[in-house]
Specification:
By secondary structure, this protein is α/β, with parallel strands linked by helices. It contains six helices and five strands. The chain is globular and about 40 Å long.
Amino acid sequence: MSSEVQYWDSGLFINLITNKDPAKVSAITEMWRSAQRGNAIIAVSNFVLVEVRPKQGFEKDYQQVVSEMLEASWPFVHWYAVSREIALEARKLAVDHPRLTPPDTIHLATALQAEASVFLTYDGLHENKHNRRTKDLLAYDGKIGKEGMAALRIEVPRHGYGTMFDQGPRATPTV
């Protein structure tokens, strides 16, 4: 059985750094550990390295964890450069969906390149609307795809991705 390819938007790592919502941190941590156990492949754009950076108010312990997550070489994390092919796909997405931000189109194009079945994000939740231009990335669920592939699921991270039969331990993030 092959592992599900999950595309992780930068918001997942930012939520870990800020550590303001224990439910989100718990879900993200569980999903990371599930991928460590071979239940998923995490696809990430190198663009995340620019978007996820320490700011005032971020918790130091979580900054360290996220730095280790982003900077270490994990076999279950597949990194994608913003290649010409991805940039052209992002441009097409921007034309087809003009409300999407350029970073969102880069992330979505990368997810398509990675052949991800799900794009995980918090962008579009009511609580995030004050700092987003589009405010509704989650509304594109099932509306973005590539010929020959199923439409991309765009969902909020939750407990249970890849862990239906795995009842492993849950704890705070460690890498």
